[in-house]
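Pilot study result, target chain (59 residues):
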Amino acid sequence: MSFNDFDDQNPDNYGLSGSATHVERIFPPEKNTQKTDITGNSCEQSDKLYELIENMKLI
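Predicted structure:
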C-alpha cells in the first residue's frame, strides 16, 4: 500500500503535518531508587501497603 492507494491525495492530511498532536519534547522519568520492606503476615502487609500508597496520594 502506498500514498497513491488513498482516496485523499492531500499530503497535508498524513504524517507529521496531518497529525492533530505534536511532541514538544521527550524526557525519561525521574529515577526513584527508594525501596520499602513490608514485613508481617499477609493482613499486616496489606494494611501497611495501603497506608504507604495512601500517603503517596496515589489513592
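One observation from the pilot: The chain is about 30% helix and 0% strand. A full batch analysis is planned for the follow-on phase.
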